[in-house]
Amino acid sequence: MSLNVPNPMNAMIPRTIFSADHEDFRRTARRFFEEELAPHRDKWEEQQHIDRSLWNKAGELGLLCPTMPEEYGGSGVDRLYSVILMEEQARAGDSASGFSLHSDIVANYLNNFGSEEMKKEWLPKMCSGEAVGAIAMTEPGTGSDLQAVRTSAIADGDDYIVNGSKIFITNGYLCDIAVVVVKTGDPAKGAESVSLLLVEANREGFSKGRPLKKVGMKGQDTCELFFDNVRVPKSNLIGTEGMGFIMLMKELAWERLMIAIMCASGCESVLAHTLAYVRDRKVFGKPVAAYQNTKYKLAELRSETQIARVFVDRCIEEQLKGTLQVDAAAAAKYWVSDLISKVVDECVQLHGGYGFMTEYPVAQAYIDTRANRIYGGTNEIMKELISRTF
Ligand SMILES: Cc1cc2nc3c(=O)[nH]c(=O)nc-3n(C[C@H](O)[C@H](O)[C@H](O)COP(=O)(O)OP(=O)(O)OC[C@H]3O[C@@H](n4cnc5c(N)ncnc54)[C@H](O)[C@@H]3O)c2cc1C
Questions:
Q1: Is 179 left (phi over 0), alpha (psi -120 to 50) or beta?
Q2: CB of 169 sitting under 6 A from ligand 1
């Protein structure tokens, strides 16, 4: 997809959160997503995952786990570098790579709560791309109600025996390790029985389903994971038994903000493509852009996108200070993911029939962005969380 379009979104309120060093990094990230990911969309869709070698390439360029400490192979930089990677992925319209989940969710659990041995063993491999990480929470029987997971890890000497299955797992097909949400305690109990366990994909009894067939994000390997009497050493426990839910809660605000960051950038990208299209396309002798309906529509969408951008940037600042509140992150996640659904729908309309053709970025965005309202906690759950803070 051609990205050589003007971005009409920068003019209203300038962004202030990035330094010159961040912008240098952005150039590397932009080139990577433009050259290595976006042009090969058809191939990723056909095979339902990106080439494994791209993980190593991203690692070589310092595009994986940049915030991890240098002693574990990262660059030890602030989370604005992660923000840039997410923005550039969304800008390029790449929905196939699961880098941000690997770098900014899975690696964080190991770094924040894992043992020293675990960090030394896995973080350097995750930074280089030698190991791909997944996080396995959702099960066929439960998603939103995470306390109701049934995958069990029963103590047996120095090991746990893991049984159960997970579904919709991003990076599931290519993963080398998964942070698995299990019940180590009484399965009838809720949060106090939940633990996080690192499970290596090559353990006997651990198997992967074929990547699932999805409405959009078809190049992303999302699959089922099965655990059939998998013996896992107790040293693979992340944190302590029964603390899984608390660890998950600590990172969830950031994980929700990540979705808002990608959606804000996605809105800007779709608007840029649409502006270029309506200026070029002529109907009844003049450009689509010349009609009042088009101008007002784009003015509304541009305003709302700008409002989203300012709120998301403020949330990023709060995150950097360590003061991002659960309700702010939930608001960002639900509002901006709702917004991108509206933006892509209106922009498809402005493209006419071409907007329904998957070779157009707007059509790709239409199918890819829908999942944002579902994963990372559904938007209904976000409203539930906000309502609890009244
Ligand atoms: C592309 C994709 C990638 C994903 N990647 C991952 C991953 O890497 N790891 C992972 O663990 N999971 C992943 N998921 C799973 C995702 O997080 C879940 O689908 C999501 O949390 C919703 O759970 P569910 O599908 O079981 O829906 P359900 O929980 O069954 O919800 C069904 C409906 O009920 C509503 N609902 C539920 N509870 C309430 C309530 N209390 N009040 C009001 N309404 C409610 C929901 O909002 C929804 O509309 C992914 C999903 C997708 C689509």
A1: beta
A2: yes
pLDDT (tens digit per residue) in 182-200:
999 888 888 999 999 999 9
Question: Which pTM was predicted?
Answer: 0.96
pLDDT of res. 3: 40
Residue entry with tokens 């950031």? 254
For CA atoms 255, 256, 260, 262, the dihedral sign is: positive
Strand-strand pairing, 152-156 and 194-200? unpaired
* 94 shares its domain with 80: yes
User: Is 2's pLDDT higher than 50?
Assistant: no
Same-domain pairing of 382 and 255? yes
Q: Which residues contact 324 (CB under 8 A, 6 or more apart)?
A: 253, 254, 257, 315, 318
Instruction: Respond yes or no: is residue 45 known to be catalytic.
Output: no
What CATH number does residue 190 fall under? 2.40.110.10
Q: Atom 29, ligand 1: which residue's CA is nearest?
A: 144
Q: Which helix (H) or strand (E) holds 295?
A: helix 292-321
| 287's tokens | 């450009």
Closest-lying ligand 1 atom to the alpha carbon of residue 144: 29
29, 80, 131 from 25: Cα distances, Å: 6, 10, 23
